[in-house]
Design goal:
Blueprint lengths: L2 H19 L19 E6 L4 E4 L5 E4 L4 E3 L3 E9 L2 H6 L5 E2 L2 E13 L3 E3 L3 E6 L3 E2 L3 E8 L2 E9 L1 E2 L7 H8 L25 H9 L1 H7 L3 H9 L13 H18 L10 H24 L22 E6 L9 E2 L3 E6 L3 E8 L5 E11 L6 E7 L4 E4 L1 E2 L6 E2 L6 E5 L3 E10 L2 E10 L3 E7 L1 E3 L1 H9 L6 E6 L4 H18 L14
Parallel strand pairs: 18-26
Antiparallel strand pairs: 1-5, 2-3, 3-9, 4-8, 5-7, 6-7, 7-17, 9-16, 10-15, 11-12, 11-17, 13-16, 14-28, 18-23, 19-20, 19-24, 21-22, 24-25, 25-27
Helix pairs in contact: 3-7, 4-5, 5-6, 8-10
Length: about 500
């Protein structure tokens, strides 16, 4: 073989190898889920004055005087934030850095309406329950209508406690309690607001039986009765500082999960009537749900977790309790970030958890009415949101290599989401699955309204449920029942036992 022929033969082989390892072919960027869907927040500031801005989701931006240079002395700062999985999905902000899969702790965008530039660094603090020390700050770069994340930089975290609250919670509380739902014990959201005396709460956590038998706290006795006189474990080794650290963690988680305060109580007679009526509404709705093939047990503690979304596409929750991998955490309330440029920024790290394994994931679509479909993989527990593309057969979809191979955490709740648009019509499909080494998933795609799309994406905010899309019987009746149940839930919040202690207990 001649040298030139040998060279071109080698080049051809290298091209084939590269193609086999390259990402699957992506369609044009989605026009349905884009950063334009995210709310812009505006702040008018003076450029020569030290200013601190706080966004709706709690991001704090410290702007020293003279750090922004503009023609005038006033500018309007524009901020977008995507700290929740829903906002990331709605904004089409995938967690990819080139070909690497990322897991995210939140994204934000900052700029000004007027022409300006940053001449001194801005300090940004992004809320974190506890900062994951493996996270880095990525900068967003627009490529073909998508945001890619580049130039990862190390992060700092603000030390605000001398204890590891997550470890305390996992070691002492998690076996019986969750923040936003009842397990063996009551939900812990808003716990301090439900005790008449905080000192009694601290003593109850340390030794509940001592408080109950002391007779000094009627609420503790009522709570004990509600949970069938089942004693809670005692924790004599917990110091006041440990318990305060836990309570602070409960407060932050309550705020992060959006659990609202309990309203004022009503009279006992009115409570009894309202509860009886609500039980009838629930029974009727449950009968409708069973007719639709759903096996749903409603939470009789009347908390927000019971709600099942009903629309022309019904989203039914299936509660799955799983042990999650716990990444390394540092005692921190905020990621501390220094930025020198406007644009998108992302707190992410490479998806390299201990449970990640080589796998194969192939998606087959059916019922498609749009020429272009954007296919996404979502893993809620790690806030992974990855766009896929066509595999080498040009029919099926994958999310990394053109043969469907991809490294994924195993045995995790995950979703495939398909979104298309044609002539103003939106097409959508959603399929729940558990990750495993080899999977082929069939995806049904149907036309939906914009509101239906938003509601299905919104439901992915729930951390303790999974969903399947299914047609609904008794649609109008169930919508009316939902409305009436929500109205009555507001009336009975805060009522369980004779002493009318608030819902959920301590």
């Amino acid at each position: 073989m001649k040298p030139a022929q040998s060279f071109y033969s080698l080049l051809a082989v290298l091209c084939i190898v590269f193609a086999s390892c390259n990402n699957s072919t992506k369609p044009p960027a989605s026009q349905v889920i884009t950063p334009a869907n995210l709310t812009e927040q505006y702040f008018a500031i003076s450029t020569d004055v030290d200013t601190t801005l706080t966004t709706k989701e709690g991001i704090r931006v410290h702007i020293p005087g003279g750090s922004i240079q503009a023609d005038g002395k006033r500018v309007t700062v524009v901020i977008k934030e995507a700290l929740s999985l829903y906002d990331m999905l709605n904004g089409g902000l995938t967690t990819m850095s080139g070909k690497e899969l990322l897991r995210s702790n939140g994204m934000f965008y900052i700029s000004t309406k007027e022409a300006s530039k940053i001449v001194k660094p801005l300090q940004v603090e992004v809320p974190a329950v506890y900062a994951d020390t493996s996270m880095k700050l990525y900068s967003g770069v627009e490529k073909e209508g998508r945001i890619d994340w580049e130039e990862p930089k190390s992060l700092q975290s603000s030390d605000t406690a001398n204890c590891d609250a997550r470890l305390l919670f996992n070691n002492n509380c998690a076996s019986c309690h969750a923040i936003a739902k009842k397990l063996t014990g009551p939900a812990l959201a808003n716990v301090e607001n439900r005790w008449p005396n905080k000192r009694h709460l601290i003593e109850f956590i340390r030794n509940n039986q001592a408080v109950i038998h002391s007779g000094k706290c009627a609420y503790a006795v009522c709570l004990y009765d509600e949970y069938n006189k089942t004693p809670m474990n005692t924790f004599p080794s917990l110091s006041d500082d440990d318990i305060e650290c836990l309570l602070k963690y409960f407060r932050r988680e309550t705020e992060r999960l959006g659990v609202t305060e309990f309203p004022k109580k009503t009279s006992a007679a009115e409570d009894s009537t309202n509860l009886a009526y609500l039980e009838k509404l629930w029974a009727k709705r449950e009968a409708y749900m069973e007719e639709n093939g759903a096996k749903v047990e409603y939470n009789r503690n009347y908390d927000t977790a019971f709600t099942v979304s009903v629309d022309s596409l019904l989203v039914q929750p299936v509660i799955i309790d799983t042990k999650k991998v716990v990444p390394p955490y540092e005692n921190a309330e905020y990621y501390k970030i220094t930025i020198n440029t406007y644009g998108w920024h992302n707190i992410d790290c490479i998806l390299d958890m201990p449970d990640v394994a080589n796998s194969k994931l192939v998606v087959k679509k059916k019922g498609v009415y749009s020429d272009v479909i954007n296919m996404y993989l979502v893993i809620p527990s790690y806030k992974v949101f990855v766009e896929g593309g066509l595999l080498e057969n040009k029919v099926d979809y994958g999310f990394y290599a053109v043969d469907g191979n991809i490294s994924l955490p195993m045995n995790k709740d995950a979703f495939i989401i398909a979104i298309g648009e044609k002539g103003g019509r939106i097409f959508y499909g959603q399929r729940y699955f558990r990750t495993s080494p080899t999977q082929t998933i069939e995806m049904s795609i149907e036309e939906v309204s914009k509101r239906e799309l938003e509601k299905n994406l919104e439901n992915l905010k729930m951390e303790d449920a999974t969903f399947e899309v299914k047609k609904t019987k008794h649609f109008k009746d169930m919508k009316a029942l939902d409305k009436e149940i929500e109205r009555m839930k507001e009336k009975v919040k805060g009522v369980i036992c004779n002493c009318q202690h608030p819902i959920g207990g301590a």
